[in-house]
Design brief:
The two termini are about 30 Å apart. This protein is of the alpha/beta class. It contains four helices and nine strands. The protein has helices at about 5-15, 30-40, 60-70, 100-120, and strands at about 45-50, 70-75, 80, 85-90, 90-95, 135, 145, 150-155, 155-159.
Length: about 160
């Protein structure tokens, strides 16, 4: 059993970025349950699903989205965040967030934040950017945008 924290995290960010979250709780990893949950929420401006996006035997979300509409993208060049998926059902954008919390957060920033801004005509706000030297090397995959958590140590950051 894993404690559910993604729904709370997602709702907080959606609210922070100007959206009105509708949290429906945990949906079981069964295609029919996922389908019913999606169909019950097609009156929203955007549907966010958390977990079930990878390639395991209980990862049904992209297939269910495809059965109801269209999966536009499944898998992105970001680490963490690779199993994210984007789809559309009856003109409603669907963002399938990976279940791993940090990967879900990356997908929230990549897709949900700009989606809310576009849907609500909210102007882009400049990001706070802090630049520091690395205290240690970081290995990464070529062709991926990598998000690394760091610890600030005076004028440097350490992975």
């Amino acid at each position: 059993m894993v404690l559910e924290s993604n729904g709370l995290m997602t709702a907080i960010y959606v609210n922070k970025w100007g959206g009105i979250p509708r949290y429906i709780g945990i949906v079981s990893d069964h295609p029919d349950s996922i389908k019913k949950a999606i169909e019950a929420n097609l009156d929203t401006d955007m549907i966010l699903l958390s977990g079930g996006t990878s390639v395991g035997k209980r990862d049904h979300v992209p297939q269910v989205v495809a059965s109801l509409g269209e999966v536009l993208v499944h898998g992105i060049g970001a680490s963490p965040g690779k199993p994210a998926a984007l789809g559309i059902i009856n003109d409603v954008p669907v963002v399938c967030l990976p279940g791993y919390p940090v990967a879900g957060l990356v997908a929230l920033y990549f897709f949900v934040r700009p989606g809310i801004r576009k849907l609500a005509a909210i102007p882009k706000v400049p990001e706070l950017i802090l630049k520091r030297r690395l205290a240690a090397k970081i290995s990464s995959k070529i062709g991926y945008v990598n998000f690394i958590r760091v610890i600030f140590e005076e004028d440097r950051v350490r992975p």
